[in-house]
């Protein structure tokens, strides 16, 4: 990956809706070579998808929770059950296997505290693999980005 590829990635992270022509103009290439580079980055799975990022509050998702989850054990079937539960819940936006005192951290978006409590009671805690959940609620977001740092 060269400097031009990194510039393409930086521009697309800032605005994924750029046309090939607009992107080419921003990085100083003609449209065809720019388009070929983008296609190559997609084929190599450097660019995995292009999405619209929504404002959770504007669609009624007022509660963002970070749940630290400890499992009962790490038996492959327990982990599989937990992974399947996580995959099946649209409220769970992100799931990270962690080092340290908890096995997983989940980022969860819900309409209300009651909706979070229902998710916890009906889906997370009934999972046999789950031993303990410690939840923190986001009071304010000081920074949110999906853009990865790129070095040239």
Task: Describe, in plain words, how this protein is organized in 3D.
The chain is of the alpha+beta class and 152 residues long. It folds into 2 domains: 3-43, Winged helix-like DNA-binding domain superfamily/Winged helix DNA-binding domain (Arc Repressor Mutant, subunit A), CATH 1.10.10.10; 56-137, 2-Layer Sandwich (Alpha-Beta Plaits). The chain is 38% helix and 20% strand. The chain contains 5 helices and 4 strands. A 4-stranded antiparallel sheet has the order 2-3-1-4. Strand 2 (92-97) and strand 3 (104-110) form a beta hairpin. Helix 1 packs across helix 2 and helix 2 crosses helix 3 (31-43). It starts with a helix and ends in a 15-residue tail after the last strand. The model has no long low-confidence stretch (mean pLDDT 95).
In short:
The chain has 152 residues and is α+β, with helices and mostly antiparallel strands. It is built from five helices and four strands, in the order αααβαββαβ.
Query: What would you report as the Rg, rounded to the nearest angstrom?
Result: 20 Å
- What is the averaged pLDDT score? 95
Question: Into which percent range does the helicity of residues fall?
Answer: 25-40%
Number of domains: 2
- Going across the biggest sheet, name each strand in turn: 2-3-1-4
Class from secondary-structure proportions: alpha+beta
Number of strands: 4
* SS field, number of helical segments: 5
CATH architecture of the largest domain: 2-Layer Sandwich
Within CATH, the superfamily of the largest domain carries the name Lrp/AsnC effector binding domain/regulation of amino acid metabolism (RAM) domain
CATH fold-type name of the largest domain: Alpha-Beta Plaits
CATH class categorisation of the largest domain: Alpha Beta
Percentage beta strand: 15-25%
Distance between the termini: 10 Å
